[in-house]
Amino acid sequence: MSDTVKFTIDEQAVEAKKGEKLLWAALKNDIYIPHLCAIKEEKRPNASCRLCFVEIEGIPNPVTSCTMNVEEGIVVKTRSPQVDRLLKTAFELLISDHNLKCSQCPANRKCALQKIAKERGLKLRQKRFKTITRDYEIDDSPDEFAFDRSRCVLCGQCVWADREKAKVGAIGFTKRGINRVVTTFEEVPLAESICTQCMLCVEACPVGALYYK
Amino acid sequence: MQLIEGEKEKILACVEEILGSNSKKQEDLIPILQKVQAKLGYLPGLAMEKIARGVGVPAADVYALATFYNQFRLNPPGKHQVKVCLGTACYMVGGDITLESFERRMEIKEGETSPDRLYSLERVACVGCCTMAPVVVVDDEVEGKVTPTRVDGIMLALQEDNSKGRREEKSGQEAGEVK
Fold first, then answer.
1. What is the pLDDT of residues A48-72, one digit of tens each?
2. At residue A9, what are phi and psi to the nearest 5 degrees?
3. Do B49 and A185 touch (CB under 8 A)?
4. Which end of chain A is least crowded, N or C, by CB within 10 Å?
5. B119 SS3 class
């Protein structure tokens, strides 16, 4: 018995290792599926960004591809009216409180949000939801990087890097709902926290929230 | 929040006692936090750090829990506790304006305690007497139809009570000296 499975994504024949998640199998085969919170090494994905929806034949509703294991013979579609609608809503909610001064952003042109917008023909302006402007202070206390929460998409990539790669535990999610932010213990500036300034979180940030000075 | 004299030892002893009599797995974190808050009245940073070390999770995770659940408070309860209702009825008739007046008069934000620990300000969702909206609960006394002018009156009464307390303390001390 082989440990690979064969299936199709958008009518393209794809091979992947058994137990692999659909999202990573697609990306490896140059099929783009929008995603922000997905982490390949994570055993139990958060599936919190709600961007990586796909349709699988036989399953009535779209599913998040970061949590679906690949299976022999499944027929996957990355686009459908339902998928597009879910993605559009999730994306618009994300940018409704996002600092959209892209020209001043260090991640301009390599930003994950810009990539999603380009790939799926979405606009970076939305009118459906009330726009929220955040007046978070920029934390520029570390020597070589800074943290601007107004650009944070709460994907959790930096928290994962901090915990699992750097093994420090300086940052984490705090508060809830609309007030949720990534911050240090008691919200002190990074330089005053136990942060070692290894900058793995800066590398992990898909947008311009954590950036080199 | 600045700790007052002798509070540090009290916090450390309290946390130690609760950690000692509890299993210290990650899922025991919330019960531990609840017990510490029941004893101390709030969750000081020092306690959260010590609990984190005891349970073996980053302090940021304990902070995440304490800020996620409304039942946990990070500031000590003041001598006078003011709770402003922002339930639907109170909100509609300007409960947020009442809250703002208190914030201005106490010079603290909602959820905080004044540095002298005389006042703490909270928001609550419905006290159960919506006909009196906007409602404020001052030290377990319900006040109805609280306008910004009434806020001034309430604050005046609280200040009067504070200075009276201080006078009594003083005369009590003097009486003790005479003896």
1. 999 999 999 999 999 999 999 999 9
2. -120, 125
3. yes
4. N
5. strand
Instruction: Let me know whether A86 and A27 are in one domain.
Output: yes
For residue A54, the domain's CATH number is 3.10.20.740
CB of A169 less than 8 A from some CB of B? yes
Q: Report how far residue A122's alpha carbon sits from residue B59's, in angstroms, rounded to the nearest whole number.
A: 40
Domains along chain B with CATH numbers: 7-68 (1.10.10), 80-178 (3.40.30.10)
Q: What range does the domain containing A69 cover?
A: 4-90
> Are A140 and A212 within one domain?
yes
- A70 CA: distance to closest CA in chain B (Å): 32
Contacts of A172 in chain B (CB under 8 A): 58, 60-61, 63-64
Q: Is B60 within 8 Å of A175 when comparing Cβ atoms?
A: no
Which candidate in A163, A176, A184, A186 is best for mutational testing of the B interface (most B CBs within 10 A)?
Answer: A186
> Residue range B30-55: average pLDDT?
93
Which residues 6+ apart lie within 8 Å of A81 measured at CB? none
Are B68 and A185 an interchain contact pair (Cβ–Cβ within 8 Å)? no
Provide the domain count of chain A. Answer: 2
Backbone angles phi, psi at A171, to 5 degrees: -120, 160
Residue A155, Cβ density class (10 Å: 0-12 exposed, 13-18 middle, ≥19 buried): buried
- State mean pLDDT over A77-95: 95
**What was the pLDDT predicted at B178?**
58
Query: Are residue A79 and residue A153 in the same domain, yes or no?
Result: no
B165 pLDDT band, cuts 50/70/90, is: confident
Q: Where are the alpha helices (DSSP H) in chain A?
A: 22-28, 81-96, 112-120, 157-160, 200-204
Give the CATH number for residue A155: 3.30.70.20
* For residue A1, pLDDT beyond 60: no
Give the model confidence (pLDDT) of B113-134 as tens digits: 999 899 999 999 899 999 998 9
Q: Is the dihedral of CA B44, A163, B31, B18 positive or negative?
A: negative
